[in-house]
Amino acid sequence: MSLIAITEVRKRFGDNEVLKGINLDVEAGEVVAIIGKSGSGKSTLLRCINGLETIDGGSIMVAGAHLAPDDAHLRALRLKVGMIFQSFNLFPHLTAGRNVMLSPMVVKKVSAKEAEAEARARMEQVGLGHKFDAYPDELSGGQQQRVAIARALAMQPLALLCDEITSALDPELVNEVLQVVGKLAGEGMTLMMVTHEMRFAREVCDRVVFMHQGRVHEIGPPAEVFANPKTPELQQFLGML
Ligand code: ADP
Ligand code: MG
User: Fold this and answer.
1) Which domain CATH number covers 189?
2) Where in the numbering of this chain does the ABC transporter domain appear (predicted)?
3) From CA 120, how far away is CA 101, in angstroms rounded?
4) Pocket-testing residue among 13, 56, 161, 192, ligand 1, by greatest number of atoms within 8 A of Cβ
5) What ipTM does this complex have?
6) Which atom of ligand 1 is nearest to the CA of 44?
7) Which structural domain, as residue segments, surrounds residue 71?
8) What would the pLDDT profile of 176-233 be if each residue is shown by its tens digit?
């Protein structure tokens, strides 16, 4: 059974149907890149999987459990699926380590001692063990985004959804964040990643999903999708037309 099973998912905002029947299964340990033009529904899809948006049709299952619209289910789902955004949103008055400790303590009621041990391990995992006591404004944008990744990992998610997590960074800081994501992929983390980094998608991802106007327009292994795009829409997106 797939870790994430998305079946005929529809989502509308008023008259604007932005997801028009999405079907996508993601296996445990799989790394999926989502590409497509602005407005094609990429962020909305991730937000639906994470329960930040309710869906108007179809179904989303995570680890065999339905995403039901009642609060308890949504809360349970958000604990299973981590999400990282373009903006890191660390609390500026807390150290990096404290930022990572916060959710496990508040949401999971983990003890401070346990949360600190977990946070130190996750900070090590993103290569920032030495920055545990630094405040966000003492860190570069790339380091802050790595702390945000550590914060998501501290909740021990089954999968991580990343929405353009390098888009707000200066170009020279993009690679250190992609390297951390690549390392997580190598460690077996299930990842769905909206990204403009085509080289990363080509080298690290198992499959690439091209979204166009609220639909999965093409899907396949990166070698196929990038080298042999079948539709004019993807050819145009890739700059081939
Ligand atoms: P992408 O991430 O691919 O750029 P989005 O999922 O953000 O696309 O947006 C898809 C469409 O849904 C766009 O037309 C956008 O304006 C619309 N949309 C997204 N979020 C909302 C919202 N909260 N309210 C109304 N319209 C929205
Ligand atoms: Mg988006």
Assistant:
1) 3.40.50.300
2) 4-238
3) 9
4) 13
5) 0.98
6) 6
7) 4-240
8) 999 999 999 999 999 999 999 999 999 999 999 999 999 999 999 999 999 999 999 9
